[in-house]
Design goal:
By secondary structure, the protein is α+β, with helices and mostly antiparallel strands. It has 15 helices and 7 strands.
Length: 414
């Protein structure tokens, strides 16, 4: 501890101190650790010095003249207390609260790019750039209220799917902000905002429509009107129930003909395998491999892959007369036909790569339809059998009555 002097540091006593050949310190009589440094130039600076858990600490307060001796004493008392607690003598100013735009960029870099696949990331990027940042980006995250989020949601009511996606992204951003300590818990502006009800779109190819699509693909393969890689991709999508990007990003090294499996490295639900059926093998065998190109569905440029199918599928579906069928509906059609063949929901979930059986339950009504049809077939069979037995029994009764009539219908008397 610094030695005390007989001087109480006040404006008068500090101004009375004179500069010497070298700087020196004068410590206050009443507050241990509070002093003033007198420089050789005559400049005077208030300082503190005290010992804490981290050892001896010394810090400057302010120049005499910029602050009064009385205020310097008050600051010194607070700084000495912080040193004894093991804290920095000077409390650092609070960092400015991030804006929604800054939070969105951190969410994108730390969460989306690491945890989401390319399709999901593209969807989230659109929600951020087109809706969240334009509406709320300049606001500090703590300034956004529930009403602001509700207003944004209401403006998007004409596109309920997009509105729901924007609310999910914004809500996730705020949950992560709480986790990162950027704001207190319970401040999520999206809480209690109800998402819009969106009717699930259901469109499945019938067997007849599958036939028409197959005819169009064969004709396009013959006349060259559709890129060969796109034809192969569409056939694989129909035969496997895979997602579009799972086929477009398939590499030849992931085609294991020995085991009979396609190894999908990056899918929406993690790595998984898909059986290579004889029909899938025929499609793979018909693909011309380019030297040095690792992709099964090759692009037009060397060593590239096909990155989109929408253009090619649009041509195929129009020719096949199924203009309302999306590429993703090929996956739904695969699952629906598996149900029609009597496969269980749990097995279908594994075939199409659903992580949760709840995702497969969307096809439960199709299973009920299959059950009704099966019940009708079984019931008709049993009913026909019952009717035949009843008819035979009735015929037997009529025969007995006829025989009774021929014999007089009575008994013989002796």
């Amino acid at each position: 501890m610094p030695r005390r002097s007989a001087v109480k540091l006040t404006r008068r006593t500090v101004e009375a101190l004179r500069a010497g050949d070298r700087e020196y310190l004068v410590w206050d009589r009443d507050l241990p650790g509070f002093g003033v440094r007198v420089h050789a130039t005559g400049r005077k600076t208030y300082v503190v010095q005290s010992r804490g858990p981290g050892g001896l600490r010394r810090a400057s307060i302010a120049r005499h003249g910029d602050v009064s001796a009385q205020n310097a004493r008050k600051k010194a008392a607070r700084m000495i207390d912080r040193i004894k607690q093991g804290k920095d003598p000077v409390e650092k100013p609070a960092e400015p609260e991030p804006t929604v735009a800054e939070l969105a960029e951190r969410y994108w870099e730390v969460h989306v790019q690491i945890n989401c696949n390319s399709k999901t990331a593209e969807l989230y990027r659109g929600a951020i750039d087109n809706h969240i940042v334009p509406a709320l980006g300049a606001m500090p995250i703590g300034a956004v209220r529930r009403q602001d989020a509700w207003d944004l949601n209401h403006r998007l009511r004409g596109t309920p799917c997009m509105a729901n996606n924007v609310m999910r992204v914004l809500s996730k951003m705020y949950r992560l902000a709480e986790h990162w300590g950027l704001m207190p818990a319970g401040r999520n502006p999206c809480r209690s905002i109800r998402l819009y009800r969106v009717r699930a779109r259901e469109r499945y190819l019938t067997l007849q429509e599958y036939g028409r699509v197959g005819e169009v693909l064969r004709a396009a393969e013959t006349d060259g009107s559709v890129w060969a890689s796109a034809i192969a991709a569409l056939r694989l999508l129909m035969l496997t129930g895979c997602r579009r990007d799972e086929i477009l990003t398939l590499r030849w090294e992931d085609v294991d003909r020995t085991v009979g499996e396609l190894r999908l490295r990056r899918t929406k639900t993690g790595p998984r395998t898909v059986p290579i059926t004889p029909d899938v093998e025929r499609v793979l065998a018909g693909i011309s491999r380019s030297a040095g190109n690792p992709w099964v569905i090759a692009g037009r440029q060397p060593r590239t892959r096909l990155t989109h199918l929408r253009y090619y599928w649009a041509k195929v579906r129009e020719r096949a007369g199924v203009g309302d069928v999306r590429i993703h509906d090929l996956r739904h059609s695969y699952a629906s036909h598996a149900l029609a063949l009597g496969e269980s929901l749990s097995l279908i979930a594994r075939l199409v790569g659903h992580a949760r059986i709840a995702s497969t339950l969307r096809y439960a009504h199709l299973m009920r339809d299959s059950e009704k049809q099966a019940a009708a077939r079984v019931g008709d069979s049993i009913a026909a059998h019952i009717a035949r037995i009843e008819a035979d029994s009735a015929h037997a009764d009529e025969t007995d009555e006829a025989q009774d009539a021929d014999t007089g219908g009575g008994t013989c008397r002796s």
